[in-house]
Specification:
peptidase activity, Rhomboid-like_sf, 12 helices, transmembrane helix, protease, membrane, 0% strand, 234 residues
């Protein structure tokens, strides 16, 4: 029989995100009748293209984060999510972990709207996954553990983002920045804002959640505002 502690320690958010990504990819493959999922109508109505967002299709800022072009694309992202998500969800808790994930996802989409060419199709969970890398770096620094390993992983992945064709560096950087910022807000902000006499667990949690909500709103608003222009910053 499972116990409340076991339930809290089970990374159900990570498993749920993996399941959603896999199911959506399977639906795209079925629609496309090919493992080139980008051919599916579902994919084409959900991937991230600035021109479509400029026409008011703002849902793409979210849905693009759950679409993948190929088996290799989803496999790499699902494996990364499995490796990073389990430990992070245990450290942050289910709700805060999911909030960090979606903040990073929207942050990656906002960066695409700002910096990618207007006709580029972007999709994939990698922006959110880079956000988890940023979150892991913040937690390691807070724990005073050497960050060399995490930094090395981030740098290697960024090098791949720059050198391999068809990869959105903007989405990766946007996700990385927003994921790190969200985690830092949870870990560091309560101690900075609350006086010693008010620094209870309840108050610290409330400050952290307010900061997360603000970051989520900022990421979504930035994506919508930047996406409303067909030119972005290019």
């Amino acid at each position: 029989m499972s116990t409340p502690t076991a339930t809290r320690n089970t990374p159900i958010g990570t498993y749920a995100l993996i399941a959603v990504n896999v199911v959506i990819f399977a639906l795209c493959v079925i629609q496309a009748k090919s493992f080139d999922a980008g051919l599916a109508p579902l994919f084409q109505h959900g991937d991230l293209v600035r021109a479509d967002v400029a026409n008011g299709e703002y849902w793409r800022l979210l849905t693009a984060g759950f679409l993948h072009f190929t088996v290799m694309h989803i496999a790499l992202n699902v494996i990364s999510l499995y490796i990073l998500g389990r430990d992070l969800e245990t450290a942050l808790g289910h709700s805060r972990f999911l909030m960090v994930y979606f903040i990073a996802l929207f942050g990656g989409s906002a960066a695409v709207m700002l910096f990618e060419a207007g006709n580029v199709r972007s999709a994939g969970a990698s922006g959110a996954i880079y956000g988890l890398m940023g979150a892991m770096l913040v937690i390691v620094l807070k724990a005073r553990i050497s960050p060399t390993g995490v930094i090395t992983i981030i740098v290697i992945n960024l090098v791949f983002s720059v050198t391999m064709p068809g990869i959105s560096l903007a989405a990766h950087m946007g996700g990385l920045v927003f994921g790190a910022a969200a985690t830092a807000a949870v870990i560091y902000l309560p101690a900075r804002l609350l006086p010693d006499e008010s620094r209870t667990q309840h108050n610290a949690s409330r400050v952290g959640w307010i900061a997360l909500i603000v970051l989520l709103v900022v990421a979504i608003a930035l994506g919508i505002i930047a996406g409303s222009s067909r030119s972005g910053l290019l």
